[in-house]
């Protein structure tokens, strides 16, 4: 999942070299933290959060078979 978010975010931003994804996994959940350059935050979030919601939907769909809650957190 980490690689999936990395590819999606890198395609959206102007500075793909600054995209960092950190993954933390426990028994019940997988937490993914996406960090991008401050100038690229708007591109990752989108108008009214539509792009961020789409990223979360795609990641949850890809991880549905793991039976764990998947959390995607976008940070600066």
Could you characterize the architecture of this molecule?
- The chain is an alpha+beta fold and 76 residues long.
- It has a single domain (2-75), classed as K homology (KH) domain (GMP Synthetase, Chain A, domain 3).
- 38% of the residues lie in helices and 26% in strands.
- The protein is built from three helices and three strands.
- The protein has helices at residues 2-12, 41-45, 50-62; strands at 20-25, 29-35, 69-75.
- It has a three-stranded mixed sheet with strand order 1-2-3.
- A hairpin with a 3-residue loop joins strand 1 (20-25) and strand 2 (29-35).
- The longest helix has 13 residues, at 50-62.
- It is globular, with a radius of gyration of 12 Å.
- 13% of the residues are buried.
- The mean pLDDT is 93.
